[in-house]
Amino acid sequence: MTDLTAFPGTIDLAALFRETKIHEVLDELERELVGLAPVKARIRDIAALLLVDRGRRLVGLPAEPPSLHMCFTGNPGTGKTTVALRMAEILHRLGYVRKGHLVAVTRDDLVGQYIGHTAPKTREVLKKAMGGVLFIDEAYYLYRPENERDYGQEAIEILLQVMENQRDDLVVILAGYKDRMNTFFQSNPGMASRIAHHIDFPDYSADELYAIAQLMLAKMGYRLAPDAEAVLREYITLRIPQPHFANARSIRNALDRARLRQASRLFAGMDRPVGRDDLSTIAAADIRQSRVFNS
Amino acid sequence: MRITQGTFSFLPDLTDAEIALQIEYALKNGWAVAVEHTDEPHPRNVYWEMWGMPMFDLKDAAGAMMEVDACRKVFPGHYIKVNAFDSTQGWESTRLSFIVNRPAAEPGFRVVRQEGPGRAIRYTVESYAVDRPEGSRY
Fold this sequence. Notes:
heterodimer; A: 295 residues; alpha/beta; two-stranded parallel ribbon; 14 helices; 7 strands; globular; B: 138 residues; alpha+beta; four-stranded antiparallel β-sheet; two-stranded antiparallel sheet; 6 strands
């Protein structure tokens, strides 16, 4: 047994915190992702755990690397893929994964068409993901109970084996809609028990969607005309209860359509010169023309 | 007789951690890593069997180590080597090649003499291991 009394002093966790620059990661997350409180809380927990583990190692206490396989569930457009992309970078900066790259795959990349093709294909993907994060989008498609000769099960078994044995070599993140993910876990209890973190992505509120829209516009180099701001808020409140609403994705599509309308408005008024302001401003009319306001 | 070959032939066998570090170095230089094995110990044998494809676009040595371990599991008594190819020139050339697995017992070589015309004698070496057929040598 390790002698737990060997290290006499204390560890300055605050100094350790500053040294690892974790706060930069957390601040950045706070700045660039709107809402998603449960997700941020979980990332903060993980960061704290990794920090404490580092402290434990310093004083000579055993620090078994935690299992960080995750499952992201949530409605369309709630930021599952975006957070997964960031997660690779976050875990790398926290020193949990060695390389910090992300390999994003779906069923097609893991499951072969013919007998004997699946194992090499899955292993190939796993090898590429070593040292980073493997992101499996819509993971429930791996398991198709209606076809008992489906090769998905084979891919799941190889995944499970590597998730268990090479925990410190890669992190697997599964993502998908909540109800279908639950069915998937019910039929694959081995998978459910090996995933330590189940994170649910809540739907965005209207205010959060507005903030997201502002971030997106800023990133694309556009801004709203003063009277367009209220119109966009109104648009969001009208759009949410409508069918096929996909949170942030719907907002991005709405902004793309607004850009189209702005472009044709500028095009129609070609006879006068346009300035930097005209090119970057979305007017109220560009949003107002949406069919959301007519219905 | 301990057979040596390749980059670290003058060193004792590398540990797994050292092998991983060497693979890491190869990947850092953008070289593709491949695993090969054989049970024909003759030094002039250049035709080793490929264990799967050379591994392009790996990011971490753990991926290649997975293949090394898989190959060891199937061929515990074979010579296994790791090659690193540099394809940046447009053609592939081996930059690094070292043995990562060897049979438990290596019986060594005998000298074979062949009487030539006149009093000429031709010499060659032959491993004691190759008396038995391929696959059951070690």
